[in-house]
Specification:
Order of helices and strands of chain A: HEHEEEHEHEEHH
Low-confidence stretches of chain B: none
Strand order of the largest sheet of chain A: 2-1-3-5-7
Radius of gyration of chain A: 16 Å
Number of helices of chain A: 6
Structural class of chain A: alpha/beta
Bound molecules: iron/sulfur cluster
Largest sheet of chain B: none
Distance between the termini of chain A: 38 Å
Oligomer: heterodimer
Number of helices of chain B: 13
Number of domains of chain B: 1
Order of helices and strands of chain B: HHHHHHHHHHHHH
Low-confidence stretches of chain A: 167-176
Radius of gyration of chain B: 19 Å
Number of strands of chain B: 0
Number of domains of chain A: 1
Mean pLDDT of chain B: 86
CATH architecture of chain A: 3-Layer(aba) Sandwich
Largest interface: A-B, 22 and 31 residues
Structural class of chain B: mainly alpha
Shape of chain A: globular
Number of strands of chain A: 7
């Protein structure tokens, strides 16, 4: 029986986010999307949690805090990274204090692309992470997630040639 | 015939002595979990959500047992076990028709075990939760004691504290303790950690105070606390059903009505601060309880 997948408790950590992703994540808990029907609880305490939901990029200050929160979650646990900031640094990538994606600090199991992702995408990502959670409980080796490599563009823009981003940054939702 | 507790308990204890106690100890957490599941479902529906499955609290407990056991110190774990053990003892005492005063004290010990556990770690949230839990006890414990006194006065001469004596009453407790029912209901709302009294560890607001007293418990140890809470829910509504002990169905009806009423109260009211909770409880429900006791003396029951 899939015990863990039936009651995933989530702790949400805002690393360095613009709050766009946080608002979309909280929208998942509202009556319209109602994550609780899958047994998901927004628990707010790493010691009770199974899933760590991170928004925003990581910087020199909060890298230690992020790692600390991650280590406090009892095994088995998964990390879900919401938004492009968590994978590359997003629009903050060029800032002097930004380290980049959160995978520089903790292993990530699911990346959810978007800036910010829609609540449907977030729910989809959480459901995908549940499979990994069960695999981890069964003692299987789970490979870290691949980063999203493409993003949606409006058709007229997609026609235009893509300008290469400056070295050292992937840009806003850009290629890694 | 089956609406009468005497008949049922006599039938079961004739079949096998002690069986009733075993059945109650095993059934209590299941009933408690089911009630909590219904509670979550109804709350979700009131808020316009679909809500988790009714068995969600059971899934939660199984999930917690599958997690890695992390703990800070052994004492902390011991208090979690103590909390559970005292709750089971309360069910055993009630099933054996023992002294209700004793039930009250053992129940208080269970809560104190939780408080001591919360005090034995250094997390400030845990400490705040523990001190608020003490304030909650200050608010509801006098009402429970007056309730037990009321039960004592309701039993025929010579008065008795025994739960079995309540079951043998010719007249429902509600007729002699009409004002104590709302007072007891207020105490139940506190014990269930419901708004407006959910100051120490919110039942629905998990992020606030990061669940106070239980903050450092994780995995299987949190599951112990959850199971103990299932027992507690069962005990609270079992005692509410005792208000109409002459007919089991009416008693169960009163307990169910109380259960739905506390869900409504929870969803309809904002949280009070700790001191407003004490002011409210001592000014309202406690006064009701006192009036009831004075009235009993006036009727010459003393
Ligand atoms: S991905 Fe976009 S919305 Fe999300 S935190 Fe980064 S900048 Fe904000």
């Amino acid at each position: 029986m899939k015990i863990l997948a039936k009651s995933p408790w989530v702790v949400h950590f805002n690393c360095n986010s613009c709050n766009g992703c946080d608002i979309e994540f909280l929208a998942c808990l509202t009556p319209l999307y109602d994550l609780e029907r899958f047994g998901v609880l927004h628990i707010g305490n790493p010691k009770h949690a199974d899933i760590l939901v991170v928004t925003g990029s990581v910087n020199h200050r909060n890298a230690r805090v992020l790692e600390n929160v991650y280590l406090q979650i009892p095994d088995p646990k998964v990390v879900v990274a919401i938004g492009v900031c968590t994978s590359t640094g997003g629009i903050f990538a060029d800032c002097y204090n930004i380290l980049g994606g959160i995978d520089k600090v903790i292993p990530v199991d699911v990346f959810i692309p978007g800036c910010p992702p829609r609540p449907e995408a977030i729910i989809d990502g959480l459901v995908q992470s549940l499979e990994k959670l069960e695999a981890k409980r069964a003692g299987k080796k789970v490979a870290p997630a691949r980063k999203p490599t493409f993003t949606f563009r409006p058709p007229e823009e997609a026609e235009a040639p893509v300008t290469p981003s400056p070295a050292g940054s992937a840009g806003h939702g850009g290629k890694e | 015939m089956w609406s009468d507790w005497e008949t049922i308990s006599a039938f079961i204890s004739q079949a096998c002595p002690g069986l009733l106690t075993v059945i109650m100890v095993l059934a209590a957490p299941l009933v408690g979990a089911l009630l909590m599941g219904i509670d979550r479902k109804i709350t979700a529906r009131i808020q316009g959500r679909i809500g988790p499955p009714i068995l969600q609290p059971v899934y939660d407990v199984f999930k917690l047992f599958a997690k890695e056991p992390l703990f800070l110190n052994r004492l902390y774990i011991f208090y979690a076990w103590l909390y559970l053990a005292f709750m089971i003892l309360v069910v055993v005492l009630l099933a054996m028709g023992q002294d209700i005063l004793m039930v009250l004290f053992v129940h208080a010990f269970a809560t104190i075990a939780l408080i001591l556990g919360a005090m034995s770690v250094r997390s400030p949230y845990s400490r705040i939760g523990a001190s608020r839990k003490i304030m909650q006890m200050v608010a509801y414990e006098p009402i429970l004691i007056l309730f037990v006194v009321g039960i004592y006065l309701s039993t025929p001469h010579p008065h008795s504290f025994l739960a079995s004596a309540v079951m043998q009453l010719k007249q429902p407790l509600l007729f002699t303790l009409p004002l104590l029912l709302p007072a007891y209901f207020a105490a139940v709302v506190i014990k269930m950690e419901k708004s407006p009294f959910d100051v120490s560890s919110g039942h629905h607001a998990h992020q606030e105070l990061i669940r106070g007293v239980t903050i450092e418990y994780s995995g299987p140890f949190l599951a112990l606390i959850e199971i103990a809470h299932f027992y507690e829910v069962f005990i609270l509504f079992l005692i509410m059903a005792m208000f109409w002990s002459t007919n089991l169905w009416i008693g169960a009806g009163i307990a169910l009505a109380g259960f739905f009423a506390q869900i409504l109260v929870d969803n309809a009211s904002p949280r009070l601060t700790t001191f407003w909770m004490i002011r409210f409880m001592w000014a309202g429900p406690m006064l009701l309880a006192l009036c009831n006791i004075i009235w009993l003396y006036g009727m010459g029951r003393g």
